[in-house]
């Protein structure tokens, strides 16, 4: 698995297959991790790409007492410099091409592209201008398809593939739907490194629901 430079605006594309998956993360950077860190660091060094700077281990965090082991983290930049969220009126809201969406971003915000070798899934990895953590990027499946922020099977498959491509247990991929703090109605996932173990990772699942968690 090696990134290649496409003919389209010299954006690197990481082509992968299942043999590239790390079923037992070693804690060392895989080719995916190397590419993500390099491109994110390059973007961070430029002016006017991020609204504020976040570096590795720069955000103070504290595990709270209690049975759920919640983690509080201070991110002052995101609190005051984040783009105001769009108005969301329903969990399923049609894509609005007149509102901000990821087809309107500056070329400097595009980090790289990912594509399965069989061509079934593909996406674009772009910066999150208001990062929540180190290397916080956005995975936008089929960017030009202009999908609303609703979870789909192929998008979830691509997101899981990115987790499997990483050599680090700390890589996280998250999805927040409309009405659950999603600020842009354009299908995307958050990707970032987070070194704090979370109870969510070990809770049993029954009938597709977490057990032992305060909400269903």
Structure description:
The protein is an alpha+beta fold and 216 residues long. It has one domain. Helices cover 15% and strands 21% of the residues. It is built from three helices and eleven strands; from the N terminus they run ββαββαβββαββββ. It has helices at 31-44, 76-81, 153-165; strands at 3-5, 12-16, 61-63, 71-73, 110-116, 122-127, 137-141, 171-174, 189-193, 205-206, 209-210. A seven-stranded mixed β-sheet has the order 1-2-5-6-7-9-8, covered by helices on one side.
Describe the biggest sheet? 7 strands, mixed
- What's the number of extended β-strand segments? 11
Secondary structure class reads alpha+beta
Binned strand content: 15-25%
Number of domains: 1
Give the averaged pLDDT, no decimals: 90
- Strands side by side in the biggest sheet: 1-2-5-6-7-9-8
Helix share of residues? Answer: 10-25%
Helix-strand pattern, N to C?
EEHEEHEEEHEEEE
State the shape.
Answer: globular
Tally of helical segments: 3
Oligomer: single chain
Rg, alpha carbons: 17 Å
* Cα end-to-end separation: 39 Å
Low-confidence stretches: none
């Amino acid at each position: 698995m090696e990134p290649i430079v496409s003919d389209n605006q010299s954006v690197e594309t990481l082509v992968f297959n299942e043999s590239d998956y790390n079923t037992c993360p070693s804690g060392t950077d895989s080719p995916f991790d190397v590419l993500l860190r390099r491109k994110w660091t390059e973007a961070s060094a430029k002016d006017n790409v991020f609204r504020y700077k976040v570096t590795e281990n720069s955000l103070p965090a504290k595990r709270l007492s209690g049975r759920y082991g919640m983690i509080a983290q201070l991110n002052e930049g995101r609190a005051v410099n984040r783009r105001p969220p769009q108005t969301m009126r329903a969990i399923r809201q049609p894509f609005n091409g007149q509102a901000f969406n990821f087809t309107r971003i500056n070329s400097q915000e595009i980090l790289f592209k990912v594509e399965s070798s069989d061509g079934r899934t593909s996406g674009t990895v772009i910066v999150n201008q208001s990062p929540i953590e180190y290397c916080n990027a956005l995975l936008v499946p089929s960017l030009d398809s202009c999908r609303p922020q609703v979870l789909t099977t192929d998008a979830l498959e691509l997101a899981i593939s990115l987790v499997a491509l990483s050599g680090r247990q700390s890589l996280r991929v998250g999805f927040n739907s409309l009405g659950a703090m999603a600020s842009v109605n354009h299908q995307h996932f958050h990707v970032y490194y987070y070194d704090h173990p979370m109870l969510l990772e070990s809770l049993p699942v029954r009938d597709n629901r977490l057990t032992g968690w305060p909400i269903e």
